[in-house]
Amino acid sequence: MELFDLSGKVAVVTGSTKGIGEAIVKRMAEHGAKVVVSSRKADACDKVAGEINATHPDQAIAIPCNIGDKAQLQNLVDRTMEKWGKIDILVCNAAVNPYFGPASDIPDDAFDKVMANNIKSNHWLSNMVVPQMKERKDGSIIIISSIGGLKGSNILGAYAISKAADMQLARNLSAEHGHHNIRANCIAPGLIKTYFAKALWDDPKILEASTSTAPLKRIGIPDEIAGAAVFLAGKSGAFMTGQTMVIDGGATSV
Predict the structure, then answer these.
(1) Model pLDDT, residue 22
(2) Which residues are catalytic?
């Protein structure tokens, strides 16, 4: 268990009240980390933090945060530091996709929102946690990207652009801060059964088209992404940085 033991670590996970983020924050707590549950809605944060504390007492706190607001991101970092004195693990999971359709028709405000929330907020938040990671010569930054960033799309164009940029953000963070023993990686999920991706699996025809050519021929579940995050957070992933881990049932392998 030592490779996957996160005891003594503090993890901040954005967008962690449902789907992939919720699975990650709960699994990291199971592996011993103190965790910060964060999303826009305070009641949702309190609910998930309460569920964690019910089985892992005093391991979770709730800090609501809109990732599009730089001041709220700084508050997220500051309150975590006040409570636990450090941030060992940052998981940038929260993202938006307000538009589904050809990129040629996306309104400018929707395009700007995708870029701001899916790229700039991760850039901001990463830079906010890096200084204290440098002081301790230790840290793991994990950005939840998507296989959309690896291929073209006629319905998720702007979102796919943002997710490709997140992969480059991880590489840049790795290059800039690796000599301080700060690692930065992406996880690129395929189709996962979450509310966020409902438009891609709720319709049986779209689901069939999305999974029929993949070797495993099925949709994934949030826990199958959470396991990778635990791996990247601790000793198990200590020699991995600047990489994108693709978890898609083999969809991009064929």
Answers:
(1) 98
(2) 159
